[in-house]
Amino acid sequence: MSLVADPGLVADSEEPGARSRGRGYGSYVVAKVLGSVGSLLFMLLVNFFLFRVLPGNAAQTLGRGRLNTPAQVAAFNKAYGLNHSVLDQFWIFLKSTAHGDLGLSVKYRLPVSQLIVDRLWPTLLLVGVSTILSTLIGVYLGIRGAWNRGSVFDKVSTGTSLTLYAMPEWWLGLMLIAGLGVGFAFVPGLFPTGGLHSPDIVDTNSVHGILDTIWHLTLPVITLTLAYLAEYSLIMRSSLLDELGEDYLQTARAKGLRDVVVRNRHAVRNALLPTTTVIALNIGFVVSGAITIETVFSIPGLGQLSTEAISTPDFAVLQGTFLVASAGVIGANLIANLIYGWLDPRVRT
Amino acid sequence: MALGLLLAVALPGLATGAPAQSKSPVVFHVAMLGEGVDSLNPFLGFQAPSYEMWGLTYDYLTGYSMKDMSPEPDLATKWTTSPDGLTWTFTVRSGVKFSDGVPLTAHDVAFTFDRVLAKDSVEGTNWLSYLNGVKSVTAPDDTTVVLKLSKPVATLPLLPIPIVPEHIWKNISESQMKSYPAAPTGGKPVVGSGPFLLVQGSADGSTFKFEANKTYWGGAPHIDQVIFQFYKNEDSAVQALIKGDADFVEGINALSVKRLQSQPGVTAHNGNSPGFDEIAFNTGSTSDSKGTKKIGNPNPAVLDPKFRHALGYALNLPQLITKVYQGAGLPGTTIVPPNYTQYHWEPPASEKFTFDLTKAGQLLDAAGYKVGSDGWRTLPDGKPIGTLRLDARSDSPTSLNTMDYFRQWLKDLHIKSQVSTYSSSQLTNVIYKGDFDTFQWGWYVEPDPDSMLSYMTCAQRQHSSDSFYCNPAYDRLYNAQHVETDHAKRVQDIKQMQQILYQDSPYLVTAYSAIGEAVRSDRFHCLVTQPNPGGIWLEQYGVYNYIHMKPASDTSACDAAPGLTGAVKTTSSGSSSSKTGPFLIGVGAVVVLALVGGGIVMMRRRTTVQDRE
């Protein structure tokens, strides 16, 4: 990725000092990337066998009342490769995955890759935007709260974010739908009750279409952002509190720096590491979707796709979504590791 | 700034909420619940909503009547049968055109049926049972289709197979077919001859848009568009109806129906659906359809028809309907619902189960299941019955509650039992292994009960049978009715089969379920139920209502349909938005508003603090 082409690596032949640092980082990168590829390959295997323990089979669950005769069941199993033994299926799975083919959904009869692509965009919009918003607001609240700990702001923000964290997401979502979607008393229904687009939007990429999508996503994004908030604000708050007593802050103040500068340039920078870990991990989980909110707001995301596939069970879909989810987490971890290694040479050993 | 963004975001919504222009098309918005569309390809999908999509897009050789779902002309204007019952000749309507202008002829019908009949074809998975016994399909000319049969088939002329255009589908090979989406591509609608054209949507999607086929042979629909929006959550779908985003909501529970009935401008009902729920017994699980090897571990008691039959008197069905179904349903009797008036057998009063624990106890005593010294009933050989396993599906509250009541009634009869819960797919596994005594589930029954009746035959063990029921006398009647060309004789056989099942009780049918539906009757009227009266408005057999419903502004008389009554009339009030919300909802919204507002205020304060420094 772009980190490999980092100027720090290219420039290492010029300067002896940077050279040793660069080489150390280079091997660190190689080790980390190999490790990640290894985990991904391992997940691929786990992936296949993990879901085979699920009860039921597609012909029985999907075909109940439709596949009326043994001949119909046989034709169905043959068409979708369900008549092969598990080992044969594993071999077919390895071969097709190596060719980048994730197989056919036995429920929707469409390529799994197409189903995932269809669901990826709504998922990224919903969970991605909420993660970013909650990170920004949460970190901000955490910093403000820790810096003025015990203040009214701190008490209110910590109390509120904890309350929201403890609230079931679906309930919060339903309350928002009932309040702002349908309207109450003199407040009109400002937002839609569900879905991602208005049905009458022809081109979802037009300006009107994009505004319409934003309008549909407002309530679900607010719900998720509020639910995620505490995670970031609390960890930011506590790690900043740890820094408060440090001598270097005293020194900075003694230098005559303004309070805000002491906080932002010195304290926050050192307190940011644990928060970065949480953020990196959660960004990896974005592609897993948010099943409850997707359900409450009827947004066709990846979370819904995979949970629905369990009851069939639709192995190809489960393998595909699980692969995407594990690749997301492993990738985010890799990036976090690479950034750590770059920021802090001690991590490399 | 944040406030500005919020306003900008809200703007398109406010714009859509504005009154529509008088020239704008009449759109019928349907909020659908439950499973979505699994395939738009009529040879592939299984889920009920998919059938609705195909019904709007394609035509059928024969259709179903609105009154009782008996076969009636559709693409076929008439049909004749040879005296030996082995040749069926259908006359296909002329002048029918596909949406791309190509005429629909008998050759398209023969092509469609041939694809279904091809050996081991994926096309056959869904439809083969309707062409069972058909040897060949030919189209000697553009308006004649001839079916040659190896033996008479009683289910004909019922042929609910969507007729696809040969000139398009002949290019789809067998290997392409298993994943052929048959969805609109590049803005072009799916080619069909039905009353509507699918212009937007794909399997697994949540929105499907149809435009009226203005040149439909049966007359243009009175509405311009139908849009299906799939909701994953019943509350949001109901809210959408109240708000006016949806004109119809399908598949809601009895409590929502009750709530919507007091909503101005909305008409809601529980329509009788052709489905039943049952408590099923393990009547002898075997490894295959021949009964070669016994498998599983059924309790010896449930293997005995006398024991099962006695339990029929231990079910308080009216109480189940009131408590478990909230009144939306009818007490059940046999596996052919009373919706199918001509096939349903109603047990005479002398045979009919009533809630009578004394009688149940007497029958059990007579069969040898006497109360032992420990207060629990024993098997006829004196050994304890032990604990009966009552398996419920965790994904269905109805299932759990039914079994909870059943456990209580069994206890009153001195029989120990325990409720276990499984997911539907887990329970399927358990059933096929035979590791069960009883479970709760249900079936949908098609207008011809042949398939449903077949599930209780010996040959369906380890296939569609979940009770492992096997009775040669029943099988003989099944085979006889399957080829019986004398309708009256066939009906008699079918009724006798239901009587045998009622006596042997592999199933205790607990309820005929109902489907909750609600329509914005201030916007649309002329909806007719199927069956009539008492049935449902949408997801019928056929798509009558989409063609014949009218916008409320169209005050002309509803289309005449012979023998039908009860079209939804426009209600006088036109109020479209709810003015009252429950107190809690208001509080919740105020809290959220306060939080958002507080955040904005805090952001503003931050700048002033910095400015001060």
Can you tell me about this structure?
- The complex is a heterodimer of chains A (349) and B (613).
- With 349 residues, chain A is mainly alpha-helical.
- Helix content of chain A is 72%, strand content 1%.
- In chain A, a hairpin with a 2-residue loop joins strand 1 and strand 2.
- In chain A, helix 6 runs antiparallel to helix 7 (152-166) and helix 9 crosses helix 11 (259-284).
- The longest helix of chain A is centred in the middle third of the chain and has 38 residues, at 207-244.
- The model of chain A is unreliable at 1-20 (pLDDT under 50).
- Helix content of chain B is 31%, strand content 19%.
- Chain B has helices spanning 2-17, 48-57, 106-117, 124-127, 166-169, 174-177, 234-243, 254-261, 305-311, 317-323, 357-366, 397-412, 424-433, 450-454, 472-483, 487-504, 544-548, 583-612, and strands at residues 27-32, 62-64, 71-73, 76-81, 87-92, 134-141, 144-149, 196-200, 207-212, 225-230, 248-252, 266-281, 329-331, 387-393, 416-422, 438-444, 507-520, 524-525, 550-551.
- The chains are: A mainly alpha (349), B alpha+beta (613).
- The interface between A and B is large, with 90 and 89 residues.
